[in-house]
Fold:
Amino acid sequence: MTGDIRDARFYLVNESTPAADADPLEFEDAFAKAQALADAGSTVRVLYTEEASQIEITRLVSHGIPTELVSGA
Structure:
């Protein structure tokens, strides 16, 4: 069972920010930052908690931003 989507957290991971050092963000902040980094040519991936909605995940993926479920966040 998933929790409330308002509890979803997203973590930006790239060459300079390993997963252990990533700060939790809400979707809109994570999406905007990930899109800006990707547009600038950086390799970025967004980790998300199980509360994330399919729409949020699809939005990231449709913009070419790889995603991955993070466990234990």
Q: What stands out?
A: The first helix runs from residue 27 to 39. The chain has one domain: 5-69. Residues 10 and 48 are 4 Å apart (CA to CA).
